[in-house]
Protein 1
Amino acid sequence: MSQEYNFAYLDEQTKRMIRRAILKGLAIPGYQVPFASREMPMPYGWGTGGVQVTAACLTPADTLKVIDQGADDTTNAVSIRKFFERTAGVATTESTRDATVIQTRHRIPEEPLTEDQILVYQVPIPEPLRFLEPRETETRVMHALEDYGLMHVKLYEDIARNGEIATAYAYPVKVEERYVMDPSPIPKFDNPRLESAAIQLFGAGREQRIYALPPYTQVVSLDFEDHPFNPSKADHPCALCGADHTYLDEVITDDQGGRMFVCSDTDYCSRRQADGHRGDMAPPVLEALS
Amino acid sequence: MTPLLTVRDLSKTYGGRIGCADVSFDLYPGEVLGIVGESGSGKSTLLNCLAGQLVPDGGQVVFDTRADGPRDTLIMSEPERRMLARTDWAFVHQNARDGLRMGVSAGGNVGERLMAVGARNYGDIRSAAIDWLGRVEITEDRVDDRPTAFSGGMQQRLQIARNLVTGPRLVFMDEPTGGLDVSVQARLLDLLRGLVRDMGLSAIIVTHDLAVVRLLADRLMVMKSGQVIEQGLTDQVLDDPQAPYTQLLVSSVLQV
């Protein structure tokens, strides 16, 4: 561990302040708690909120996993993992099962989480009513008074224009029949899995808000009686591991219209392949290795 | 009969200046009350105090609620007042842009109040919206257009539809025909008169246009410098004005 930094970069008073916000968030599920977000050594939009929450949660015994759009090997995930390797000296992993703290952007891991895990989301815009009501003073009053008719106006507009609820990510949810919450830009496919055994923490650095879902909290996606919530996904199996129950990325493979659908959760996909599952375009198993 | 709205000694000052002072009146179900006066006479201040958009300095505004009977709206909690404002009350702004969501389709605008009180069936909301657009003479094929694509008169009619969709019992109107040309005004007044009579609405209409109150209002209140200087039946006040200011006001109207 490099000695130039306090453990996990932030000073102890800052982490204490963030923990207080986290505890308040856990006490009032879905409520956005303001906190004094710090400048982090990365640009806003790269996960400054998530990083601060992770820093406040980490202990030296933790094992950290960082996900960016489901993958462990993209720029955001690699640099945040390196950041904590360097400033906290914690063990890191790409395996969902082995991690105790998981920071994520845009996905919930396919592997069901356990009570021993914390999932930290990076949130760009915590306010679900932001683009419906521009005044922050007014949206706070609307949350306080449970005045959520406007949220359904957005869904109404979706159906009127597109024939179905076209909101595909950041799909609004109601927490414990009280607060309407933006689940961060996860695909709506992941919404049913917000009801989880793990603690889920949401950090928005630029907007200076933290909110949280305690384990086993009721989370309901908003919808209409005659247009029920549909956690849609691409209608294909994974081309590498053959899974038909996971969220898929569409990958363009050439300029002739060739494409393949693969699991966006790279860890889950490679684990399935190691277990012997095969998709249409999976590389052949080498006899010599098996 | 219980008055729908009972106002007693309502006062509002802006620092040392009087907004409105010691206004008292009763409004009975199905009655339309006109408030006239020149600019700055306190008409809009009074209306905003009644509708809960301004906090008055003193007085009582007692509304006969459906559930609990007469209650003072000024000492109600904010959630109760908001609930009232989106069920039993309606507020028609002078400028339709203040009362509409310009980025949301006409159907969404009309449906908002329904969704705010818990309607969760898309088909029902949409057919209610289309029904109400029809009642204010907007054709069904405009239901998915935004209000920005509507003319001023259509926007005002859309605002009325949006307000009346939950079947309110009391409508506040602030210069509903202001800024519209005379032929559009006439049609809008016609429409309003029909809706008020059909639905048995009570309404409080603030205006400086005496023709509007002559057509719509049963009773009239004349305000000057924040005070009510004369009130009575509309025809009585307009045809036989007693106060000097009312006489001036009535004689100022150009006879064509």
Note: Chain A has two domains: 12-221, 233-283+286-290.
Protein 2
Amino acid sequence: MRSARQGDDEAYRHLLDRVAVWLRGIVGRGLASAGRGSAEREDIVQETLLAMHLKRDSWDERRPIEPWLRAIVRHKLTDHLRRRGFHDHVDIDDWSNSLVVSVDVEAPAAVDSRLLLESLPERQRVIVQQISIEGRSAADVGARLGMSEGAVRVALHRALKALAVLYRRERP
Amino acid sequence: MRTDQLVEALVSDRATVRRPLARSLGLALAAGGALSLVIYFVTLGVRPDIGPAIATWRFDLKVAMVLIGLILTFGVCLDCARPDMSRHPLRRLLLLVVVLAAAVAIELASTPAASWQTRLVGSNSMICLPMVPVLSVAPLVAALLVLRRTAPASPVLAGAVAGLLSALAGATLYAFHCFDDSPLFVATWYSLATLPMMAIGAMAGHWLLRW
């Protein structure tokens, strides 16, 4: 995360990938202990990654990152279960020592997030799709859409913020 | 969207930070405070006897108490902005309570009982109560804007603490206007004046700081 803050994209990608794997373990067990299947797991993982990204300023570099991440996933998991009509305390400390690595990187596409993507404004949606699904660079997308690279990054950032809001509001 | 695709989008958005949170919050308070300073000079202004007042221990103690509160609350506010906030975030404010209590005790011990009521009621309480909140509005708005970037474990608590922080910023300005320097007055009326700001902050936190 420290390297990522200096602008090291490769370090950031590596961190997010590892965190995603770690989150799948935690979220999967959180859902299981709440008596729910793992169908919603990937949604919560994605929502947590998004929160971690957008709220990264709230991490203090002098502290370890793990308690901060765990607090975010606890918040998102509780929030998710509450929204789905489940009222109970979720205590992830039970699994705090298990950094289980689940192997299915090709996790099933989460249906919800595809729907969410479709409710973004046209331009934001195109930008997110081209960057994330087609794997293009911001400069490349800018050239195709006739926008500057900076403008693409601003639109991308807005889209990510909008996605985070949609995650919280739109789902049943 | 698959998770690895989301990761691509996040990486493209860059992880670099703009500014440490403490500095952003400090700048926000300064900016809000500057606006309040304009309101302050238009409506109240510095007391005319500021020179001799600074030489008295009561005035100095009053300013010191407000500043101690401001500094302590700043730390509490940064703590509340984190998802992994400490278990007892308000514990730091105990020091402020101790200082207030000590100041009140000194005042009671050093002045005759007959003067207590005058000292407590003072001459400005009806100006203090509305003006401290008025001077706090701009710092509160600025602080809430900064806190929207953060992930508070309890948005309501974070909002209330931001309200207290802004009220103390307003009280710092007000302290240079008010003639009432007795710790009895400060402990009573300044504290009461922070309450509406804490309530407004808590409500704003509920709406603006959820994530």
Note: Chain B touches chain A at residues 1-18, 21, 24, 81-84, 149-153, 210-211 (CB under 8 Å).
